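[stage:ingest] chain + small molecule (zinc ion)
[stage:ingest] validated
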Amino acid sequence: MSKNYVVGFPRIGEKRELKKVLENFWAKKVAFEDVKQVASELKKRHWNYQKDAGIAFISSNDFSLYDNMLDTSIMLNAVPPRFQTLKDETLYFAMARGNKDAVAMEMTKWFNTNYHYIVPELSLEDEYKLNATKIINEYKEAKSIGIQTKINIIGPITYLGLSKRSDGGDTYALLEKVLKVYEALLAEIATLDDAITVQIDEPIFAKDNETKVLSLIKPTYDRLAQVSQKINIVVSTYFEHSTEATKILLHTPIWGIGLDFLYGKENLESLQIISKSDKKLIAGVVDGRNIWKNDIQKTIKLLDEITLHVDKEQMIVASSCSLLHTPFTLEYETQMNAEIKNWLAYSKEKLDEITLLTKLFFQETLTDEENRQFQKNIQANESRKTSSLIHDKTVQTRVQNITKRERAEKYEQRIIVQKELLKYDDLATTTIGSFPQTKELRKLRRDFKNKLISLEDYETGIKAYIDKCVAFQEECGLDILVHGEPERNDMVEYFGEQLKGYGFSQNGWVQSYGSRCVKPPFIYGDVSRPQPMTLAWTTYAQSKTKKIMKGMLTGPVTILNWSFVRDDKARSDVSEQIALAINDEINDLQNAGIQIIQVDEAAFKEGYPLREAKIKEYERWAVRDFKLSVASAFEKTQIHTHMCYSEFNDIIGTIEAMDADVISIETARSGNELLKIFADVGYKQEVGPGVYDIHSPRIPSVEEILKQIKLLLEVLPKKQLWINPDCGLKTRTYSEIKPSLENMVKAVSIVKAQLQ
Ligand code: GLN
Ligand code: ZN
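[stage:predict] done
[stage:export] C-alpha cells:
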C-alpha cells in the first residue's frame, strides 16, 4: 500500500451540488430525501476520486451537511435548551440557521481561514450522550463501494477550546463528560472492522496554549488510545506548528501525528524527538490552502530533509490540512489563460500530486503517464520563474525606489487644515459606502458581463443608480455622501479585476459556511494599476452634488487577505505592490478634486497570525502598507478607513499607527463598552462607531439611536465623533435604509440641539 494521505476533501461539490440542494430544501422546493440523495452521490464521487488517484488514507466523516463542529455537537448531543424539542434534520438546521422561535447558534471563523464553524453552546448542567449514527453510516457507505476509510473526528480539546459556556466559565471543565462520549464512540467504531484509523483533528494545538490546556493532552490521549487495540489514532494538526503538543503526544500511545510543514516550518524542529518514537509522521507537504501547483522537486527535497531525522518507514505523505480550503477541480476552468492555468492545482489535481510525490519519494516505478506529469510539473514551475506575465521589472524597480512611505504632516496639523476646508460639523453623518444592491442593478452588471448590453447602456445604468443614490442621501440629510458602489460585485474582486497580476476563476468556489461559497481572486504576478479604477464613478457622483463626495477604495491588506496569494513571493512584498497601486488611485482622486477618500481595511484583523510570536511582523508590514497606500494624500485630503470589527483592545496601538484621519468601526451591538479602549489610550484621530446594526433588517428608532449616540458621547468628545451605520448597506433594501438613515439624522439633530 502506498503511503499517502489526504486530511480531508471538500464537500460542496464541483458544481456546488450540495449548495443547490440544501437551498432548495430550505426553500421547501425539495424533500430531505433529495438532500440525502445528493449527499450520498457526492460522497461516493469524492471517495472514488481519491481512490482512483491512488490515495491510501481516504476520509469518511469529512463530509457535512453544514459544518463538522455542528456535527460534533450532534454527536455529543450538546444541544442548547432552545432547540431541545426538535429532532433530526429540523434540529440540525435550526441550530445552524435558527427558526421562528429560536435564534441560530453563533458562527465564527475557523482559525485563520475563511471557513466558519458553528460555535458550540455548552453548560455545566449538560448531559452528553453518544449519537454515532452519522459516523458509522458514512464508514459503512464507503465500505459498500469497496473503500475502507479512516474516520475523521474533531478532537475533544479543540472542540472545547472553540466552545462557549452559557455562564462564561471554562469549557474545559466539561472535558470529563465529553471524553466519556469520545470513549464510547471509539468503542463503537472498534466494532466496525479489524483495524481502523481514526484521525482526530486538533488544530488548536497549532496555537499558543496555556500550560493548563497542554496538561490536558496526555491524559486525554492516553485514554482515547487505550479504548481499543483495533484503532490507530492519528492526531492531526495544521495551519501552524504544534511543537508543544507534539512533545506531549509522543508520550501517549497514539499511532501517528499529522504536522503541517508548509504553514508551520518550525515543525521541522520536532523531527529528532519524533525519530526516537515509534509514531507515524503524517507529513503535510501539499498545500491545502492555496491553488498553486506543488513544486514537486522542491517538496522531494523537503521530504528528504525530514528523512535526515525520521526513518522513511515512519513517514506518510499528506496534504497540509483538509483540502476544504481549495476549490474542486480545474476541469471547468475553460476560459482561463492557459499559461496561468498551467500553474494551478485545485483539490482533485492535488490528489495526483500527492500520489506522484509519494512514488518519487519512496522510489516506486512511475508509469509513463506519471513520468509525463512529473516533467510537466518541472516545466510549469520553471516557467513561473521567468514568465513575463508574472515578473514586471517596472513594478519591482518602483518598489525598490519607494521614498515616501507616509504622509508628511502630522495628524494634529492635518486635521486643522481639513476641518477648515471641509467645514463639517461635529457628529457629521455619513455611510460606509455601499447602498442596496437591487435586482435591477445585479441584472445590469450581469448583462454587461455576459455582453448582452453595450458599454454605453451599462454606464447609463450605473449613472442612473448614482443619480438616485445621491439624491436619496440628500433627502435623508446626510452630511458626507458616497456614490453607493453600484459597479461593484465585491469589494476585492472589483479591484482585482482591474489590477495587473490578478486572476479570476470561473469555478474556483470554496465553502465559506453552510451552503455559502466564495470565489476568491488570485494574485499570480507583480501587481500594478494600468488605469484608474474608481475615478470616473467618483467624480461623476461628485458632479451631482454640492456636498462632499467620499471616494471609496479597498486597502492593500484586505485585498491580500481575501485573495489566493502567489507563493513565490512573501505576502509582505505582494502587499507592498498593491499599496502602490492603491496609492496611484488616491493621487488621481485627489487631483480630480475628491476631498475625502475612504480606504477600507475590513479584513485587516483577519490576517493576524495564529502564533503570538509572529504578530509583530504581520503588524509591521500591514501598517507599513496601509500607510504607503495613502502616503501621497495631500495634507487637506481626509483619509478614512473602515473595519468590520468592534474588538480593538488587543490591536488599538496598531490601529493608531495606521494614522487614518477617521476610522469607522462596527460597535453598534455593544453599546459603548468596546469604544472605551479608544478613550483609554488617548486615541487622537476621529472615530465613527456604528450607531445601528445593518446586519439585521430591523429599523432602529430615533430613541434607540439617540441613546446610542449619548453612550458614545460618554466616551469620546463630540468633536472626535462621526455618526454612521456600522457597515455597508448593500445587503439591505431601500425601504429599510430610508427610515433607518432618516432616524439616524434626526437623532443627531436632537443631540446637537440638546448640546447647545
Ligand atoms: N465600503 C464597503 C461597503 O460599504 C465596506 C464593506 C465592508 O466593510 N465589508 O460595502
Ligand atoms: Zn464593515
